[in-house]
């Protein structure tokens, strides 16, 4: 297996869908939900695990979509907001790659392989082996860090 770990953001590590009015913000091309979403797990633990795994030779990355039907300018603003969110919430993690791609892009084709954590079942199915739901992040990363 490729020693890469990929994280979706929205609904996986960033609680975008809990932001009140998130869909209306997206429809009006306002980045507020991307910039202000809460975290979805203990990020101190996540950062420690990711740093430990990188020391063991694992690459860690983000693979996230832009907004559905977003204009080119809005999609660029979404990427900027997502990168700022990551820098604010996980400042000690030096991501090997951050890919914010057009909504609907096949993540497996874009990333090539490894492990994917994603809340969307379609993305996990398209990824195949090594794709997991967000509730398994800590469990799997702890196992990798031990092994």
SSE pattern, N- to C-terminal: EHHHEHEHEHEH
- For CATH, the homologous superfamily is named as HAD superfamily/HAD-like
Structural class: alpha/beta
The CATH topology corresponds to Rossmann fold
Name the CATH class. Answer: Alpha Beta
Shape designation: globular
User: What is the CA–CA distance across the termini?
Assistant: 14 Å
Spans of at least 5 consecutive residues with low confidence: none
Q: Could you characterize the architecture of this molecule?
A:
The protein is α/β, with parallel strands linked by helices. It has one domain (4-146): HAD superfamily/HAD-like (Rossmann fold, 3-Layer(aba) Sandwich), CATH 3.40.50. Helix content is 44%, strand content 14%. The protein has a five-stranded parallel beta sheet, sandwiched between helices. β2 (59-65), α4 (72-89) and β3 form a beta-alpha-beta unit. The longest helix is centred in the middle third of the chain and has 18 residues, at 72-89.
What is the element layout, followed by pairings?
Elements: E1 4-7, H1 22-27, H2 32-36, H3 43-55, E2 59-65, H4 72-89, E3 97-101, H5 107-111, E4 115-117, H6 121-127, E5 131-132, H7 137-146
Helix pairs in contact: 3-7
Overview features:
Rossmann fold; 147 residues; alpha/beta; 5-stranded parallel β-sheet; 5 strands; 7 helices
């Amino acid at each position: 297996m490729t020693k890469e770990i990929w994280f979706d953001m929205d609904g996986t590590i960033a609680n975008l869908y809990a932001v009140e009015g998130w869909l209306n913000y997206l429809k009006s091309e306002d980045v507020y939900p991307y910039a202000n979403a809460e975290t979805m797990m203990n990020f101190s633990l996540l950062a420690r695990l990711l740093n430990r795994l990188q020391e063991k030779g694992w690459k860690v990355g983000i693979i996230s979509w832009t907004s559905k039907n977003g204009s080119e300018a809005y999609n660029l603003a979404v990427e900027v907001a997502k990168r700022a969110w990551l820098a604010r919430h996980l400042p000690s993690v030096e991501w090997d790659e951050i890919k914010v791609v057009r909504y609907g892009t096949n993540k497996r084709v874009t990333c090539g392989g490894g492990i994917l954590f994603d809340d969307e079942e379609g993305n996990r199915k398209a990824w195949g082996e090594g794709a997991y739901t967000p509730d398994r992040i800590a469990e799997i990363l702890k196992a990798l860090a031990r092994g």
